UniProtKB/TrEMBL annotation:
PANTHER family: HEAT-SHOCK PROTEIN 20 FAMILY MEMBER. GO terms for biological process: response to stress. SUPFAM superfamilies: HSP20-like chaperones. This is SHSP domain-containing protein. The lineage of its organism: Eukaryota, Viridiplantae, Streptophyta, Embryophyta, Tracheophyta. Keywords: Cytoplasm, Stress response. Residues 40-133 form the SHSP domain. Coiled coil: none annotated. It comes from Corchorus olitorius.
């Protein structure tokens, strides 16, 4: 069911997630994971990847369908942690009166993290975008 037909704006879910995360930060518990952690864990589990070792490099192949190149972020964080992420949001319908009958394509956050070896030369890290090839 397309909830927009009854006046529901899907972008409000993103706003609600942010508000819940802000509220939760004030009530941090050592025994329960945060909502943001749970969402990140789910995004990581649903983002398939292959890792290959060549004589000169490691190659990471990650499937993030529906994302455009400018929607992807690749960075190396402290401790040689390679992070690749992006977010696919629902496209705005240009035609008025359009209602989805079925929606199976994934929306939301994609996230994959890889711990690089201590001797990894992070200055030589490069990324390429292959449009699903």
């Amino acid at each position: 069911m397309d909830l927009r037909a009854i006046g529901f704006d899907p972008s409000i879910i993103d706003t609600l997630h942010e508000l819940l995360d802000i509220h939760e930060e004030g009530e941090k518990s050592q025994t329960h994971p945060s909502r943001a952690y749970i969402r990140d864990s789910k995004a990581m589990a649903e983002t398939p990847a292959d890792v290959k070792e060549t004589p000169n490099a490691y190659v990471f192949v990650i499937d993030m369908p529906g994302l455009k190149q400018d929607q992807l972020q690749v960075q190396v964080e402290e401790g040689n942690l390679l992070t690749v992420c992006g977010q696919r949001k629902r496209e705005k319908d240009k035609d008025q009166g359009v209602n989805y009958i079925k929606m199976e394509r994934r929306l939301g956050k994609y996230l994959k993290k890889f711990q690089l070896p201590d001797n990894a030369d992070t200055d030589k890290i490069s990324a390429s975008y292959n449009l699903g090839k």
